Amino acid sequence: MKKGRKIASLIIIGLVLVVEFLALVIFTVGIMAEEKMFREMLVCVVYSGLLTAMSVIGLVLVACDKKWVLLSLVGTKIVMFFAFLGATGGADAKSTKACFILAGFCALLFSVTALIIICVKRANKKRIYGYNTAVDYNYDDDNCVWDEAERHLKSATDEYCKTNNIAFEALTDRDIIQIDRYSVVHMAYLFAWLVKNHFVKDNSRNELVKYDINEYDLNIIANETRDPIYIILHWNGTLFSDILKRDHKGRMARQFISEYIGYKEPRFSNTYVSFYLDDYIATTPSGKMYHDDFSWETYHELEQKINKNYNRYLAQNDAVASTGIALKVFWPLFGVVLDVYAAEGVSDDYIHKCVKHLLKFSDNLITDMCQGMVETLHCQGYNLDSLISETKKGKLAVKGNFIPDSIKIYNPPIGEDRPAYVILDRGSFDSVHGIGIPVLGDKIMGIDYRIYTPNPWFRYYFT
Description:
15 helices; two-stranded antiparallel ribbon; alpha+beta
């Protein structure tokens, strides 16, 4: 629960509690003063006591960050109101019944009014914390979220308030709409690049239907008639990989963007790095992340940087694909013979350095490989209980399931001599897709399907 909403809920329930407690005191005094109306007063005491207890419980639940507490209290108290109203139906004391009805009605009216006020108040600010859109996209196993506005809304809001010297409470609807745009501008540029390079799915087989866009949307972006922000906002402020075609070019673009837009380095850490955002910020007129709206002039400047990095990626990827097997090597760890592929220009000395590193695979790399396999494959729905158990014991749990058949070696960047290669397999875990494990020095850089596994040096080629 947000801090502001939590405080408001505590205040509202606290005020209602005061009213209900006062009613409890009044009826308790009345039960001692009115002996002839003992039954009616007792019902009122029980009723107001329950209301008071419920409000106290509500305060505790809100303090524990439970959701929907206000709504639950109001609904329950309405039911109780009519239940206890029926319990006093046979009373002859009209004044007592009137007092009871008035107290209950006031408490309920206060609760409902307070709930409406807080909902209306939050409605003007709700898009600061999340979007309401027409699309509720369900992600599948072959889809990943590249970026989403939720990660940027707070920073965008803070920067907007600081730049315009305005307090958060003073933001208008117009300000909020602008903040929404600032939080997705960087995604809009990347989406425009994907559209203009024909990586996005076409509508020839109704592939765009589930994204609620059509050929017209893509054409007006490709022709630079309109900026693509409205599409990103319509997608809940999210840019996801499943919008790309499933052909070879689409897969290459997916792999490129996945690395370019951000990754965690080193593996299993929380340090987030994004070369794309670095390029984006360096290109904006202000040099800030959330300050400039979309412009096609800025796009063309940013496009040159994206193209440069993408072409480098293609060159490195094709470098290995265009060469044959450099040598074969037996890997005792798994008891298999591997085909060693090397990109054009890779020296024999560097090839042998990588092979030597592979043959002396360290215990830390084995542990990371097992952990990474469990993380990756478990998310794909595999039953890996035994594998997880063995991994926790520090054993080579993937042996017998992970069956490598080759490694790929790429040209290292200038000044780098660490061994780096990709281990590829078609094991029993997933014989259709296969698995790839990029290794750089003493780190496992990530584990993915065979076709999506990037060059370990890939991120070092970015400008």
